Structure formats: C-alpha cells, structure tokens
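User: Some background: our group keeps a shared notebook of sequences we're curious about, and every so often someone picks one and asks for a predicted structure to add to the entry. Today it's my turn. The entry only has the sequence so far, pasted here. Could you supply the structure so I can complete it?
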Amino acid sequence: MHELIKTRGCVYQSAYHIVWRSIDRRNVLVGRVRQHLLALFSQIAGDKGFDLLACEVMPDHVHLFVSLPPTISVANAVKIFKGISARKLRMAFPELKAQVRSDHLWAPSYYFGTAGHVSAETIQHYIEEGQS
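Assistant: Of course. Here's the predicted structure to add to the notebook entry:
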C-alpha cells in the first residue's frame, strides 16, 4: 500500500481500482493508441493531483489503481480520466471514430472498488470494541 498523504486539513490513504471499457467492447486500445493512452493517464493524474499507483490498458478496457484526494469523488475522477483521454485520443488518432462507429470512445458505465490498509472486518471490530 502507498504512504499516507498529508494536506493542510487532513491525512488520507485512499486507493481505488477503476475499470471501464471501450464502447461496444471494441478492441481499439492496441499498439500506438495503447501507448499514447498510458502516457495520457499519467499526465492527467499528474495534472490533477492524483497518484496513479498502477495502470493497465487492455484491447477493450482499462484498469486504473489510483489514489484520489478526499475533495475529488470517484465519479468526478472517472469523468476527468474518460473525458480528457477520449478527446485527446480522438485528436491524435482520428481513425478511432471509424473503428468504434460511434461518437463515443468509452462506454458510459464503470466499476470501482476500494482497497485499504486494513480490512473491513478489522475496522468493524475496532469500532465495536470502542463501544463497550
């Protein structure tokens, strides 16, 4: 797990596994597009103050493992990653529009899960023990 992050008002340690797919699960995230997308995700994370812990681009979907500041919701982070990457990929690779046969590169849905330093059971036990 990554280190604690300290800001003026809080200390946090967040980690989210985020996954989304290309529209219609098209296998368009390959070759130069894949390499460009990996660089884009790193750039977006750096520009927005996110900590990109791991990233993998598969032919039809992406996996990000990212730490977000508490001021950013997961939904907003996904919107940022998807929006900026779609726009910049379309600018760099105009042929993508014909390959996905849609005005959208990404499917509208996504998955996210949390990863923590301690388990949910440990936290629950800690809280319940403090109640007695």
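Suggested note for the entry: The mean pLDDT is 90. The CA atoms of residues 54 and 100 lie 26 Å apart.
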